């Protein structure tokens, strides 16, 4: 009888461990999908931002109904991607807040092309965020410990 109870206990513990591993894998897969979508949206945002700057810059020099429609289309495309990015960002993490501010700053159009230095700042910050999020996906609850150990090397 004790052997049967031991086997049932082991199977029960094994089921719990298997469930936890499955849950962790599912969370990691969803998190990786989120990282990929954020990366794609950031690239699309920068592309559409270029289009918007060009359309508005052209409108400043050649006012006309076609240019006005192009400006509106470009603006809507940028805003669509911008809000998708904002909805993916964490509103309390400092780097996410900083990224949103940098994206906001790019919405002010004063030239036919966006400021390359500001674009580079956005790309650098986005890369740091994506790397941090990848580390969380890879190491889970041990992310802080692993980051600390790597910093000590």
Record the SSE blueprint.
Elements: H1 2-61, H2 65-88, H3 94-105, H4 116-139, H5 143-152
Brief summary of the model shown:
The protein has 153 residues and is mainly α. It is built from 5 helices and no strands.
Please give a handful of descriptors for the protein shown.
153 residues; mainly alpha; elongated
Structural summary, described in words:
The protein is mainly α and 153 residues long. It is built from 5 helices and no strands. α3 packs antiparallel against α4. The longest helix has 60 residues. It is elongated and about 90 Å long. The mean pLDDT is 83.
What is the typical, i.e. mean, pLDDT? 83
* Dominant shape: elongated
Order of helical and strand elements = HHHHH
Percent strand: under 5%
Low-pLDDT sequence parts:
none
In whole angstroms, how far apart are the ends? 53 Å
> In percent, how helical is the residue content?
over 70%
Q: Output the number of helix runs.
A: 5
Question: What's the count of strands?
Answer: 0
Tell me the Rg in angstroms: 23 Å
Largest sheet, strands/sense/barrel: none
